[in-house]
Specification:
The chain has helices at residues 2-13, 31-41, 71-83, 109-119, 138-149, 172-175, and strands at residues 54-62, 89-98, 125-128, 156-159, 164-165. It has 201 residues and is of the alpha/beta class. The protein has a domain at 54-182: 3-Layer(aba) Sandwich (Rossmann fold). The radius of gyration is 19 Å and the shape is globular. The chain starts with a helix and ends in a 26-residue tail after the last helix.
C-alpha cells in the first residue's frame, strides 16, 4: 500500500502545473499550429518538471487595452500562484515589454535584458504565453531558442499556448541545426559603425 502511495506521489510530481488561465477565451486559427498540437497529442510530451530545480523567468508582452483595471497585477499574481505549486522552482522575476503587436527583437528591451540574464546564468527556464510574444519573425524566434539551448547550462522556453518546450528531446535535432547560428568568422560591428542601422532594414 505504501508503495502505491509513493508511486502516486512521484507521478503527481511529474505533472507540470496548469497555465490554463492564459488560454481563457483564446482561439488560434493557425492550421500549422493546429497540426503541431495534433502531433503533440500523439506522442509522450515533455515539459519542465516540478521535481527539477529551475530558475524561472516569466516574459509578458503587455498591451494596456483591457476591461480590467489592474490586469497586469492580476496576471502576475496568477503566474505566481501557479509557480508556487512547484516548490523546487525558483522565481527570478517578471520581464514585461509593452505593445499590442508582436515585436521585432530590437524593440523589446525587457526580452533583451532576459536574454542577457540567461547568458549570465540567472535563469534556466523562460515561461511565456505564446511564441508571438517574443517575435513576429520565426527566424528570430528560432535563433533565440537555439542560442539559449547551446549555452553551457541550456535554457529552455515554454510557450503555454502552443504547449511547446524548446528543450524537449524531439526538438533536439532542430535546436542543433547550425543554420541560424553565427559562423565562426562573423565579426561584431563596433557601436560607432556609421552604417550599422542598415542591419535592421
Amino acid at each position: 500500500m505504501s508503495e502505491q502511495i509513493a508511486q502516486r506521489e512521484e507521478s503527481m510530481q511529474e505533472v507540470m502545473p496548469s497555465f490554463d488561465f492564459l488560454l481563457e477565451g483564446k482561439r488560434d486559427g493557425n492550421p500549422l499550429l493546429a497540426e503541431h498540437r495534433a502531433w503533440l497529442k500523439s506522442i509522450k510530451r515533455e515539459r519542465p518538471l516540478p521535481q527539477k530545480h529551475y530558475r524561472v523567468a516569466v516574459y509578458i508582452r503587455y498591451f494596456n487595452q483591457t476591461r480590467y483595471r489592474d490586469y497586469l497585477s492580476a496576471h502576475k499574481k496568477q503566474f505566481l500562484d501557479t509557480l508556487a505549486l512547484c516548490p523546487n522552482w525558483e522565481f527570478v522575476g517578471f520581464y514585461v515589454d509593452e505593445g499590442g503587436t508582436a515585436p521585432n527583437m530590437e524593440s523589446a528591451p525587457e526580452w533583451s535584458r532576459l536574454l542577457q540574464d540567461c547568458y549570465e546564468g540567472k535563469a534556466d527556464l523562460v515561461i511565456t504565453q505564446k511564441a508571438s510574444n517574443i517575435s513576429k519573425k520565426l527566424s528570430e524566434l528560432a535563433f533565440c531558442a537555439r542560442l539559449l539551448a547551446s549555452l553551457p547550462k541550456p535554457v529552455g522556453i515554454y510557450f503555454v499556448s502552443e504547449d511547446i518546450y524548446t528543450l524537449a528531446s524531439y526538438y533536439c535535432e532542430d535546436l542543433h541545426d547550425p543554420f541560424f547560428l553565427p559562423s565562426p568568422d562573423w565579426k561584431i560591428l563596433p557601436d560607432d559603425e556609421p552604417r550599422r542601422e542598415l542591419l535592421h532594414d
